[in-house]
Structure prediction request, 940 residues.
Amino acid sequence: MNGAEQVAIEARKQDIRSRWLLSAPALIIIFVAAIGPLFVMLLYSFLVKGDYGDVKPWEFSLDGWTSVFFQRDIFDDTLGLADAHVSIIWRSIQLSFFTTILTLILGFPTAYFIATRPPHTREIWVFLVTIPFWTNLLIRTFAMQQVIRNEGLLNNALIWLGIIKSPLQIIYTDTANLLGMTYVYLPLMVLPLYASIEKLDFRLVEAGYDLYATRFQVLRKIVIPLVKPGIIAGSILVFIPSLGAYVIPRVLGGGKNMMLGNLIEMQFGAGRNWPLGAAMSITLMILVMVALIVYVRNASRGGSGHV
Amino acid sequence: MTESRTTAAHGGAIGLHGIKKWFGNFQAVDNVTLDIRPNEFFTLLGPSGCGKTTLLRMIAGFEMPTEGQVLLDGADISGLLPNQRPVNTVFQNYALFPHLTVAENIGFGLKMLGRSKAEITSVVNDMLKLVHLDGRGHNPVTQLSGGQQQRVALARALAPRPKVLLLDEPLSALDLKLRKSMQIELKRLQLETGITFVFVTHDQEEALTMSDRIAVMSAGTVRQVGSPWDIYDRPAERFVADFIGETNFLSADVVSVADNRARVRLSSGAEISASFPADVTPSGSVTVVVRPEHARAGAPTDTSALRGVVHDIVYLGTDTHVHVHLDDGTAFMVRQQNARSGHCGFSKGDTVGIDFSDDVAQILRD
Amino acid sequence: MFRSRFDIKSQPGFGFITLFTFFALYLPIGALVVYSFNDAESLSQWGGFSGRWFVAAWQNSAVQDAAIRSLIIALWAASLATIAALMAALATTRTAPYRGQTLKYAMINQPLMVPEIVTAVALLIVFSRIKVWTGYSGLGYLVLAHTAFCIPFAYLPIRARLESMDLTLERAAADLYASRWQTFRHVTLPLLRPAVIAGFMLAFVISLDDVVITEFVKSGGQDTLPTYMLGQLRRETTPEINAIATVFLALSTVLVVIFFFINRKKQ
Prediction:
């Protein structure tokens, strides 16, 4: 190793060191106030719950975890399925799935339409989609509440039109959650879809028509396979927040239609079972990871589709 | 597939009658009428922006004429959508579906038409053999070289047995050697399949090599239609003479016209015989064109058609170009095939006389 | 049959669905804004045009309190986040890969990958324990939490700008004897300014808008505007809530418009 190489290596080491130093503040803040607490939460899930909330420090138990899915029968002490928990978790997954489908049904044509407008008009459409996207989640949820309430916009309009006599009970049902999540997360589906469709080479569509494809066949066999990355991205961006929804089911679902997020909150409030809450949170995280893995697998496999 | 391919039934006849096309204020096609015969290799030749691609797209159905009709075998197809016309296109950028394999690309048209899996497989295999790509059916198209992709595009367009095949400058992305071998390939395919080929290019050499007939276009109009020989040897107007190959332009005055030949007097005073386009009766001052390879340069004599001084000699391997300044100032080029010695026999500054035979001069329509 | 053009891009019904989607997207917020000017008490009847709810909200001491707190937290969090993000962006871009870089990148973007409720609950756990140990229950926890999830939002535009920046300008400065700090101050930083401003604005909006984490981390009486609204939604609401929401909406829209224009200028 000659002198010049050694100087280069030293300079590189120095560079790497200074880069670590520069990124230290960000990393420290995130570790202290975002990532670190996750590990603490993991620890708490193995502790014993305290009588008034919080935990009994450093007494360990697996109760937090077993209580996620199981419960002890109060009479004969056998372990059975915690129906309430399981049904809430299952419903959260179902609702998230249907929200993704609904946003896809509405979002794909919208993204496609915008992407096929002339360039100047396109900007305006994108801008119009971006505004709801940046509007506060709470405000949009509130707006939705105003529409589907019993004395809300939708019911008033339907009664005024004579279609129904008394208001439909939409709010405080699962449908309300579905509508709310679809409404709130729709821009999250449209934007990545739009980005994908905009990059599509429409000469391929022309070739499709030249080869006798109908409009529907062109959509199914050419457009959709080539836009798959956007579809996947949009689906993840909707499914994952839906799984962890908290505000929307709290405002629109009422007490009876809890999703996993509300169930978790309950453990830190009236439920007074912090270890259980911690375990449920980690369960939610695991569900999210699983969803991410499934989607990413599909994305990479979707490279060569089939006609 | 064992059926004979050279049946006349395959090729369709295309009629373009009174076609005009405006894009906003820009007129891309100005009153074009063409008849393309069944089974012929027809080329639309012209510089960029002359409207040749627009015409092709109108035959395919991607553009609709503002005025005029597009006919296929006598029937008006102007209102038909592209997927309703038995016409297929080989696109300039190939437009192969990147998410499908070679075989899936080739079979795409047949699949859209709802043919059976067995038929599709059989046709695809035949096509692969036809374009010398057998064994590569399962490859993704993105793995192929430019030349191979071009052949897949060709096979894909031929698989549905269209009546007419449209080719939009398909060879422009290939390097020279590949392009030349593909030209021969295309010609062979056209003869074997009997399908009418409508070929668009700006490369006049390509057009001359492959075509049965050529339509030379400029600024949205057809300037001349004819066989390669017609276009090259009997250009009707200045644009065609200039666009195809190299030409010498000479001013002359008409002396007399008899049958289908005219006698004209050149600026040197010599009189020569010249042909002229069928729809014109030449008189007065005209422009005459002579191809460089039809002229001979030698020692000046009293009977030389033209006289001038050699001002440049360009050696090109197979030929030599001798650039001459004529007595009246015009430039003239003589192309001589090189003898073994490689020397053309002149030096710069020599005075030479130029002659050509009776049948090589042509009067232009202008 | 005569058409002027065969539109290869159009698909039947898509235009209609798009219009319906936009209608559905804007109707609720539109109604919300309209009703914030409603003179009547009830939210379901129109009583004439009036700005009184805006006045009422403005004069509502709880609202004032929450609004001020929101702004303080947002200003602190956005500032700290932008500075940290700027340093992190400088550290992670324009370099050959080295050990730990992917991990670093994942950590910086973590808040985007973990559901908010999970982070909120984890923070609740940690901060409760710290409150017990130190007795401190001021705004510090909120500022810290907000800064953490604002960092990736400030990071992204700055990083994007750095990656697309022309290195030769800085090399030229070095060639002209500028020290690393001088190069940074006089060449890099000015060029980065639009991205830094964009990052700050993004972080600011994100902090202002946050509901879930704030709800779980705050101590009693530490409402921000969103958590105040969340609390109000449980009861009988007057258009006062609409008024607050409309102001919020206006603020977001203005920021989006500014953001759009900054982006346009870059091009």
